[in-house]
UniProtKB/TrEMBL annotation:
Keywords: Calcium, Membrane, Metal-binding, Repeat, Transmembrane, Transmembrane helix, Transport. This is Mitochondrial adenyl nucleotide antiporter SLC25A23 isoform X6. Belongs to the mitochondrial carrier (TC 2.A.29) family. It is found in: Mitochondrion inner membrane. PANTHER family: SOLUTE CARRIER FAMILY 25 (PTHR24089). Solcar repeats lie at residues 183-269, 277-362. Pfam families: EF-hand_7 (PF13499), Mito_carr (PF00153). SUPFAM superfamilies: EF-hand, Mitochondrial carrier. InterPro entries: EF-hand-dom_pair, EF_Hand_1_Ca_BS, EF_hand_dom, MCP, MCP_dom_sf, MCP_transmembrane.
Length: 419
């Protein structure tokens, strides 16, 4: 490990950092300024870091921020704690953290990461290109973070954009044993379900319009966006634009839970004696988990399509719709369109992941030479484009699936009434 600088040099360095963070030049660094500094430096959770990290021992005025001396005291405490964390991860005590030590630390927490993922973590901190992290690089990267132990460091890496969030587009998130024991996994699933419910409710009119046009548009009945919206509003009013949204939201929770549990079991079966899964193996596990979840909740997909296309007064509710389908068409009707639905998972997931990785790596090669983190806006753009490409490739199968789901006496009557 490189020799530490003298006390005078340390105070100069801390003074420069204080001046950089003190944006309003009032001689104090408050929570807002520390939050802005964390965000500017690529911090994981600025709110958490600012609220927990701005209260060093001896702070006489916690609500008013820190003056220079209090800020220096705070940094002294932070450096001492960071030095202990550095030594904990530096398993061979050679003064540097390498790729294998990052992998070993994750493995001790119950999380297996690939060599490529560990290298991306290392690249995000390695400023001198040595493929190792020395004390100065470690200190400068985490100085403003409220990391209390090794687990905090690993969770920061795991949930930051350094690790491939692109795989989460098709592969469920992985949780450590500690996260499973503490209930973190279900909290994240619930948060995802709530976010999905809000987004689906917001886009429900467009989703119903899509299904309406997929089923009713033809050579003799050319529907456009305005014409479709006008027909739906004339038939059932503005509130009819949200038909089918209830069950669309309702199926989020069971689908997410089943996909997560199936992914864990399939991943364990594929892994065997391996310590970690490659991206391709995780893609296969994620696709199989998605197919498993779709198989189990598919009757809800059929009900969603029928409720979306229903005329005013056609069904009394979800149970009445299910009973009429069962009575008139039999149980097999609940799996109409299942085959094209499952087949559509493969091209969508494969193209989505492939395009995402290609775009992200191309951007890193062209514009990012010092960091493996392209930033949230770039990742969002890559995810949007890759998802669009996947949707376009799998759309013919989605069209066939929706047409098959809508087949039946009720759908034919509905189509006759709308044409």
């Amino acid at each position: 490990m490189r020799g530490g600088p003298g006390e005078a040099e340390r105070r100069q360095r801390w003074g420069r950092l204080f001046e950089e963070l003190d944006s309003n030049k009032d001689g104090r660094v408050d929570i807002r300024e520390l939050r802005q500094g964390l965000a500017r430096l690529g911090g994981g959770d600025p709110d958490r870091g600012a609220q927990q990290g701005i209260s060093p021992e001896g702070d006489t005025d916690p609500d008013g921020g820190l003056d220079l001396e209090e800020f220096i005291l705070y940094l002294q405490e932070r450096e001492q704690r960071l030095l202990l964390l550095f030594h904990s991860l530096d398993r061979n005590q050679d003064g540097q953290i390498d790729v294998s030590e990052i992998q070993q630390s994750f493995r001790a927490l119950g999380i297996s990461i690939s060599l490529e993922q560990a290298e991306k973590i290392l690249h995000s901190m390695d400023r001198d290109g040595t493929m190792t992290i020395d004390w100065q690089e470690w200190r400068d990267h985490f100085l403003l973070h409220s990391l209390e132990n090794v687990e905090d460091v690993l969770y920061f890496w795991k949930h930051s954009t350094v690790l491939d969030i692109g795989e989460c587009l098709t592969v469920p998130d992985e949780f450590s044993e500690q996260e499973k024991l503490t209930g973190m996994w279900w909290k994240q699933l619930v948060a995802g379900a709530v976010a999905g419910a809000v987004s689906r409710t917001g886009t429900a009119p467009l989703d119903r319009l899509k299904v309406f046009m997929q089923v009713h548009a033809s050579k003799t009945n050319r529907l456009n966006i305005l014409g479709g919206l006008r027909s739906m509003i004339q038939e059932g009013g503005v509130h009819s634009l949200w038909r089918g949204n209830g069950i669309n939201v309702l199926k989020i929770a069971p689908e997410s839970a089943i996909k997560f549990m199936a992914y864990e079991q399939i991943k364990r079966a594929i892994r065997g004696q391996q310590e970690t899964l490659h991206v391709q193996e995780r893609f296969v596990a994620g696709s199989l988990a998605g197919a498993t979840a779709q198989t189990i909740i598919y009757p809800m997909e059929v009900l969603k399509t029928r409720l979306t296309l229903r005329r005013t007064g056609q069904y009394k509710g979800l149970l009445d719709c299910a009973w009429q389908i069962l009575e008139r068409e039999g149980p097999r009707a609940f799996y109409r369109g299942y085959l094209p639905n499952v087949l559509g998972i493969i091209p969508y997931a494969g193209i989505d992941l492939a395009v995402y990785e290609t775009l992200k790596n191309r951007w890193l090669q062209q514009y990012s030479h010092d960091s493996a983190d392209p930033g949230i806006l770039v990742l969002l753009a890559c995810g949007t484009i890759s998802s669009t490409c996947g949707q376009i490739a799998s759309y013919p199968l989605a069209l066939v699936r929706t047409r098959m789901q809508a087949q039946g006496p009720a759908s034919r009557q509905s189509e006759a009434g709308n044409t």
